[in-house]
Amino acid sequence: MPASRKIRKAAPPTPPRSRAEAKAYYRARMIDAAILGIARHGLSGLSVSRLMEYSGLSRGMVNLHFERKQALLLQVLQHLADTYRAGWQEEIAAAGDEPAARLAALVEYDVIRGHSSPTRTAWLAFRQEAITNPIYRPLCDTREAAYFEAVKSLCAALIKEGHYAIEPEVAALGLVFLLEGLWLDWALDPKRYRPTLGRKICRAHLAAVFPRHFGER
After folding, report:
1. What domains sit in the chain, N to C, each tagged with a CATH number?
2. What averages of pLDDT result for each successive group of 10 residues across the chain (217 residues)?
3. CA distances from residue 76 to 9, 99, 195, 210 in whole angstroms, order as listed
């Protein structure tokens, strides 16, 4: 997991060649800039001036592409959710067919590679805001359908294989809550957090719940 670092302007994507490419180009720059702005200043501190600073775009261009702040924030959260989902799905697909290997790959992605420092901070900012603003909840809920069902189905497969006396939902929620706790610990003090220790904590949890799959061999 990357340590906290000085936030710089978002690197611009390849310049557009058509109207459709231009729309995607400026949208990407705005979203990258918003992620950096949220990471440093929070949702409430994201302003047009800061979007201009981090994106390098003019005020007119910022206003042209995102007339309302709420619309921009929703697109940022959708981007974070889509990127995260694509990442963990790719990891478990590459891990093979064994449920234990797939679950280990998902945990590794969450603990080590899942997000850069700014994106993880921005994600947690939306999680906090979702407590009082339900519009964000479908995209950043702990029980987001695709993610939680993936974890739950892998736990169910391990329970069946190992004849463990635990319900799939209980096993899945225990792991998800542990991962979220590690994310929060990282966000509160990035310099203190050690990814390798996070990995050991998760492996110890998995060994306790699924000893015949993750116990010492």
Report:
1. 76-214 (1.10.357.10)
2. 43 61 82 92 90 88 79 90 90 94 93 72 88 86 81 96 95 93 81 84 95 83
3. 16, 32, 26, 37
